[in-house]
Hints:
Layout lengths: L2 H4 L4 H7 L29 H4 L2 H13 L3 E5 L2 H9 L6 E6 L4 H12 L3 E6 L4 H8 L4 E5 L11 H6 L7 E5 L4 H4 L2 H4 L3 E5 L13 E5 L2 H14 L5 H11 L2 H20 L4 E5 L9 H7 L6 E6 L3 H10 L4 E2 L9 E4 L14 E4 L5 H22 L1
Parallel strand pairs: 2-3, 2-4, 4-5, 5-6, 10-11
Antiparallel strand pairs: 1-7, 6-7, 8-9, 9-12, 11-12
Helix pairs in contact: 2-4, 4-12, 5-6, 15-16
Pyridoxal-5'-phosphate binds next to helix 5.
Amino acid sequence: MDHQAFSHLKFESWLVAAGRSAEAGAPLNVPLIPASNFILGQQRGYARGDGTPTWEALEELLGGLEAGKAVTFASGMAAIAAVFDQLPAGAQVVLPADCYQGVAGLAAAGATRGRWTVRRLPVEDTPAWVRACAEADLIWLESPSNPLLAVADLPTICAAPRKPGAILAVDNTFATPLNQRPLDFGATVSLQSATKFIGGHSDLLMGVAVTRDEALSRALLQSRTLAGATPGALEAFLALRGARTLALRLQRAQHNAMTLAERLEKHPLVARVRYPGLPSHPTHLVARRVLNGFGTIISFDLHGDATLADAVCRTVKLIRHATSLGAVESTMERRAAIPGQEHLPPTLLRLSVGIEDVDDLWDDLDTAIRAAQAAYVRAV
Ligand SMILES: Cc1ncc(COP(=O)(O)O)c(C=O)c1O
């Protein structure tokens, strides 16, 4: 495509315009090309190492969003594993105390095998992160964090002096590049599970790592090729289609999320609401400074116990009782029910707000909470 012509575009326009051919007669949308290999003689021979036109269109779009080079992967975890793959033996890794259990599991498995050591720091403890930057080989941040939605002071942490060669990685899945720009703050690499907001329809698994460091981008590509952690052609096609509407979906869903968070906070049966957009959130002031939008995920605790919270999940109808997040449909689950997440508050429900009508969502949620509570009171 003609990069010059599009270099001035805002995100909303880039999402629609990027990753298309400029050639007369070419299809308007890059086709789904399910090819493992290509006729030899041109630059492309075998898809695992050389890529496919479908992946490249998506990588152009995702790289352009963060003004870096994007490498897409088979899943968010594959992208994360490729970053860990860059570490020297005996490396020091720093992880947030609250983060996606998959990355915590990956880090713990590597530590058990003696590949690296791991330290966990509270997301909110900016001075501790600044100190860690001087010592660690991999500073791993996830912000807002999953599922407590703590927002890290990325501008301060990313500007802190780092050990030479250290990687500062930010899992930007919850924010998306529209709400947060880790590379602009000085992070080495920004990652997303494209399974979530980029795809946006709960119909694919994919990950992406974006960096402005040429050597790291080549190394990530090499890790992807050697591990065979390549995306599928259909997934890339769907992710590109999903990305076209990212700005609209995010805008609508985050408006819904703010409304629901405010209503939940006033609900007599709700004990606590965690949403970075609420002044009551512990990192609200950081969120105001760092994020362009507060996102679409709300975590809230109920008065009661796990049985009650499970009953609410089973009672909602419009909101689906399902894991994952960032899709057009609202989903909700009790996070402490997930193996490895037992440390979380037992009634904490993580709600990923979709693009439905906000009053329909509220009716569904409020009805389910009241019905489950009434049944609970009768039973005890
Ligand atoms: C914050 C975060 N990062 C990474 C991942 C992993 O992504 P994937 O499931 O695409 O491997 C998830 C999945 O839920 C996540 O929530």
